[in-house]
Design goal:
The protein is mostly beta strands and 94 residues long. It contains no helices and eight strands. Strands 1, 2, 3, 4, 5, 6, 7 and 8 form an eight-stranded mixed β-sheet that branches. It is globular.
Length: 94
Amino acid sequence: MKTLQLTVVTPDASFGPYICDSVRINTEEDSKGRQGGSCGIRPGHTDAMFSLDKGPLTAYLDGGLILKASCGGGIASVSGNVVTVITEEYEKLD
């Protein structure tokens, strides 16, 4: 099974890497007014950059939730099977 490596970076700390097979983020409305929304990332995703809205950040492995967090906006990048979230605020939730 292919996996992703997720790392969350804040001004004060770095969290992870979390090994998972899917990540879900909230994207922000773009400059043309197109609504953002929820975006899923799985192994093999095209390299991309996302502007993040405040909201949940979740990661799953084998169908089970391994990370539930609140993200304060920022950016996410996907390069190969590496996902990096850079945010001002991050709180891991139970």
